[in-house]
Design brief:
The protein is mainly alpha-helical and 183 residues long. The chain has six helices and three strands; from the N terminus they run αααβααββα. The termini are far apart.
Length: 183
Amino acid sequence: HKVTPLGSDGAKQIQNYYAHYGDLAAKAAKLYGDPGTTNPVDGDVINAFNTDVDFRCGAELIADWHSRVAPTWQFQFSHGYEPLGAVHLWDMFYVFGWLKPPADQPRDRMLVDQEQGYWADFAKTGDPNAPGLPIWPKSGAGRAYLDFTSNGAVAKTGLRLAACTIYARKIEQDLGMLPQAGR
């Protein structure tokens, strides 16, 4: 995908989402206003924003919290085909080995083998890492994750770190406004 710059409607959407959070609105506007901060795999800037606030950053935050009490593994599935690229739940076709054209190429079968290997080993042992597969790092302070790319599984860190840091600060402020038990 080619990253399309943020238009005025998108800028308003971002401003409205963060409007009640002080400096977060300005930070988000600056971040998303720079198309260079969006990976073409994520599509347009506003698509990246919507994916960040609806899916990605919430999952990242929960993985971070969970990793403080138990082993946690996080992934992104960025393999896809034009014109849509990687779309929500596309990874399930690979987990269950249900490949349909154009997703029936040798690289797709390799991804099926990798995903099924990780998921099966996690079900058997509580750890997705298995012999013959790239190491899937635990998430946590280093914000590690496994990216299922068109070239196979690749360990990475810091998935949308700047955007998800702004999002996490918003959620922390939201949680801080909740009534505390025992007050």
